[in-house]
Amino acid sequence: MKIITTFCFMVLLALNCFTMNYQIITPSLGGNNLVSDDLLAVYLVFQDNASHDFLVNIEVYYYNEYTPSSLVLSMGTQSISLSSNEVILNDPQHDEILANQVFHDSQFYNYYLTHGKFMSGSYHVCYTFKELAEPQEKMQCIDHFIPFQNTLHLISPFDESYIQTSNPFLTWIYTGVLDAGYSYSITLSEKDSNQTAEEAILNNQMLFSLALDENSLLYPITAIPLEPCKEYAWKVDVTNGSQIVITSEYWSFSIDCPDEDTTTKPDYFYP
Predict the structure, then answer these.
(1) DSSP letter string over 54-113?
(2) What is the pTM of this model?
(3) How far apart, in Å, are the Cα atoms of 69 and each of 1, 65, 124, 127, 265?
(4) Are 50 and 83 in contact (CB under 8 A)?
(5) How far apart are alpha carbons 82 and 31 in whole angstroms?
(6) Cys bridge to 61: 42, 124, 209, 247, which one at CB 3.0-4.6 A?
(7) What is the DSSP letter of 183?
(8) Confidence bin at 106 (pLDDT 50/70/90)
């Protein structure tokens, strides 16, 4: 009996040696403006005060009522040194994790690139930690939902782009429906180099304004001409009479100077 008890104790001790002595504390992903940085507000709680080296992998899955779950984003690092209660977001190596972001879905990537946040829908975020000195890995997943809301976003010309026409084709997208009495209101102003697009719209003389029902407009040849070598700011509102219901972001574009060398300009152009 004594031999059996001793053997069981040794087995339990051996199993305890291979037990992962840390707990994953996942972030609380509150709010609707979710960005990659928010995912890194994760930390580990150790049974000791030592620093441990880990391989970290984070995978983000997206789904909604129209699409099945699919991997849209992954990021991680081959080695990061963590102490107990040390939030990865505050670790100097968190920049390396963000630099290793891989987008697996073009629609998700384009939305994130344009709007700087995750699109509406349901997310399943999985964290995998593997201590380099141990054979096992530990995974923990959380779910997060970003409610669907009516949004209004500019599409083209893209923000801070250079275009080669004085009559650009302006487009935007609204996720809601224009009910009776509602319309789009587009506003355009000249922008100084030391201004933001929003400052230009709010402070400078309005060059063009129009209410319409379509989500695109070819800048009219009858409007005040847009001049080469100048920069312009624009925005779109959804209005109900004189009341603004929702406002887009504020964007700007520049019209090329004649025969100017554009090799040093950004590589996105709008014809």
Answers:
(1) EEEEEEEEEE-SSS--EEEEEEEEEEEEE-TT--GGGSTTHHHHHHT-EE--HHHHHHHH
(2) 0.55
(3) 54, 10, 9, 17, 39
(4) yes
(5) 27
(6) 124
(7) E
(8) confident
Residue 94: Cβ-neighbour burial (10 angstroms; 0-12, 13-18, 19+):
buried
* CB contact at 8 A, 108 and 119: yes
For 123-145, the pLDDT digits (tens) are 999 999 999 988 899 999 999 99
Distance between CA atoms of 239 and 162, rounded to whole angstroms?
A: 29
| Cβ atoms of 210 and 183 closer than 8 Å | no
**Under DSSP, is residue 121 helix (H, G, I), strand (E, B) or coil?**
strand
Residues 248, 239: contact at Cβ < 8 Å?
Answer: no
Q: Give the C-alpha separation, 196 to 252, whole Å.
A: 8
Residue 265's pLDDT is 52
pLDDT band at 9 (very low <50, low <70, confident <90, very high): very low
